[in-house]
Amino acid sequence: MSTSEMALVVGRRAARGPFAYREVLTQRLAEAEAQPKTARTRLKLMAGVVAVLEEDGVHELRVANCAARAGVSHGTFYNYWPDGSAAAQAVLSDFMATVTARRPGAPAGASAHQRILAANRYYVVVYRRNAQLMRCLMQLGNAEPDFARIGQAANLALARRVVRGWERAEPEAAALPEAARLARALACIAMVEGVLRELYVRPSPAPLAGMGDEEVAQLLSDCWYRLLFGREPP
Question: Which positions ≥6 away from 22 have C-beta within 8 Å?
Answer without folding.
Answer: 47, 50, 51, 54
